[in-house]
């Protein structure tokens, strides 16, 4: 399928077709890990372009799954073809053949894929492949809500300002938990998110207060307030991002299981009932747990 390979800086110019080993397509510190796809078949240029487009889409898919394994920035920047033996590149390539665009912002903490993470990635990809047809259907409102939440969650990583990251994350929360009648948004979204994510009464109460504070901060900054003063430390926004990641995964699991008939309104009602019933909350937490779902699926 594909493998992840970490290249040395001197290897990258050779792969991408740059002139010297001192050439760079991305800044040092932005990451030297590449997804590698190999093919030993034959075909004309038209077939090759189709192969390239298919692998680029697969790479985007893999990186998309990586974004939900842990809360950290991981991106697909650019790609380049390389032929073996090396002399074929002199015949088949014309100048610098690169698709995509290099990322220039260096992260304080790089995305590190441990052996356990790599195993998790394989299991997640197998699970997604098994339910591909289900998640390809954008008809159900709950599926569209997941798409919107995922779009804003994944997009917030590329935002330059804390204000924009906060706004994106709250939009993702609204997509997942926003009541259909639009009343009492802050309270009901915070309660639903805390109910789904809270591990016991104390943790649920803490998360409820946190979500309320972050939601109120969003409302303030869109009217000209200071995001850092209203939302607190930058770590608060990172914590919100991780919670949105967890919530999106849990809602996706409930969708895959068919809980509440995969109906967004019915699922929100089920979460609301669970907020005041410990047995229902425990059941909901178990049904939305990804590891439990993987076990139930035999993965």
Can you characterise this structure?
The chain has 299 residues and is mostly helical. 61% of the residues lie in helices and 4% in strands. It contains 14 helices and 4 strands. The protein has a two-stranded antiparallel ribbon with strand order 1-2. A two-stranded antiparallel sheet has the order 3-4. The longest helix has 25 residues, at 45-69. The protein is elongated and about 70 Å long. The chain starts with a strand and ends with a helix. The relative contact order is 0.09.
Outline of the structure:
This protein is mainly α and 299 residues long. The chain contains 14 helices and four strands. The strands form two sheets. A two-stranded antiparallel sheet has the order 1-2. Strands 3-4 form a two-stranded antiparallel sheet.
Distance between the amino and carboxyl termini: 18 Å
Tell me the helix content.
Answer: 55-70%
Unreliable spans are: none
Order of helices and strands: EHEHEHEHHHHHHHHHHH
What's the total count of β strands? 4
> What is the strand arrangement across the widest sheet?
1-2
Which structural class is indicated by helix and strand composition? mainly alpha
Helix tally? 14
Radius of gyration: 22 Å
Percentage of β-strand residues:
under 5%
Q: Overall 3D geometry?
A: elongated
Could you report the average pLDDT, rounded to the nearest whole number? 87
The major pleated sheet works out as: 2 strands, antiparallel
């Amino acid at each position: 399928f594909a493998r992840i390979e970490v290249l040395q800086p001197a290897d990258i110019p050779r792969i991408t077709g740059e002139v010297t080993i001192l050439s760079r397509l991305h800044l040092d510190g932005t990451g030297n890990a590449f997804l590698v796809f190999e093919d030993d078949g034959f075909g004309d240029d038209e077939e090759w372009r189709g192969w390239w487009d298919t692998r680029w889409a697969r790479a985007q898919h893999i990186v998309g799954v990586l974004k939900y394994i842990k809360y950290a920035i991981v991106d697909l920047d650019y790609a380049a073809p390389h032929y073996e033996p090396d002399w074929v590149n002199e015949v088949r390539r014309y100048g610098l053949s690169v698709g995509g665009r290099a990322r220039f912002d260096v992260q304080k903490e790089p995305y590190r894929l441990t052996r356990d993470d790599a195993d998790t990635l394989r299991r997640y990809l197998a699970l997604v492949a098994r339910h591909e047809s289900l998640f390809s259907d954008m008809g159900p409102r709950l599926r569209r809500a997941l798409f919107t939440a995922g779009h804003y969650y994944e997009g917030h990583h590329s935002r330059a300002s804390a204000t924009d990251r906060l706004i994106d994350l709250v939009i993702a929360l609204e997509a997942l938990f926003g009541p259909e009648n639009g009343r009492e948004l802050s309270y009901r979204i915070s309660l639903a998110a805390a109910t789904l994510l809270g591990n016991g009464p104390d943790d649920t109460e803490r998360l409820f207060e946190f979500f309320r504070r972050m939601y109120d901060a969003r409302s303030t900054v869109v009217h000209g307030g200071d995001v850092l003063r209203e939302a607190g430390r930058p770590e608060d926004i990172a914590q919100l991002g991780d919670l949105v990641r967890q919530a999106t995964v849990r809602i996706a699991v409930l969708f895959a299981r068919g809980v509440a008939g995969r109906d967004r309104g019915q699922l929100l009602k089920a979460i609301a009932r669970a907020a005041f019933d410990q047995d229902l909350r425990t059941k909901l937490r178990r049904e939305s747990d990804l590891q439990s779902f993987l076990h139930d699926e035999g993965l």
